[in-house]
Design brief:
With about 110 residues, this protein is of the alpha+beta class. It has one domain: Nucleoid-associated protein YbaB-like domain (Ybab, Chain: A, 2-Layer Sandwich), CATH 3.30.1310. The protein has two helices and three strands, in the order αβββα. A three-stranded antiparallel sheet has the order 1-2-3. Helix 1 runs antiparallel to helix 2. The chain is rod-shaped, with a radius of gyration of 20 Å. Keywords: DNA-binding. GO terms for molecular function: DNA binding. One of its GO terms (cellular component) is cytosol.
């Protein structure tokens, strides 16, 4: 029984360190801006590393009142690509903070954000 207490303390320290690393990674991600474009750069979407849409920039040349659907498709494509890149970076950053431990496997995927 005496051996279990030091092991439990060590495990708790590891969990606390992981939590600290996760918070630091989340803060770094929130300040990171990710850009993606579509239509040859005619539409640009900017999202934070945490996945928050921050800006959509549309070149005036792509605005055609006769073809609104094309503009909508370009916006969706740019935003979608920016969000996918943000998610990839988030997975990489948070995966490093957990030491590669797959929290989803334990039902804890949403534990840190």
């Amino acid at each position: 029984m005496a051996k279990q207490k030091p092991q439990m303390n060590a495990m708790m320290r590891q969990v606390q360190q992981m939590q600290s690393d996760m918070l630091a990674a989340q803060e770094a991600l929130a300040s990171e801006m990710i850009e993606a474009t579509s239509g040859g750069g005619m539409v640009k979407a900017v999202v934070s590393g945490s996945g928050e849409l921050r800006e959509v920039i549309i070149s005036p040349e792509v605005v055609d009142p006769e073809d609104i659907e094309m503009l909508q498709d370009l916006v969706v494509a740019a935003v979608g690509e920016a969000l996918r890149e943000a998610e990839a970076r988030k997975s990489a950053a948070l995966g490093g903070a957990t030491g590669g431990l797959d929290l989803d496997k334990f039902g804890l995927g949403g534990l840190f954000g």
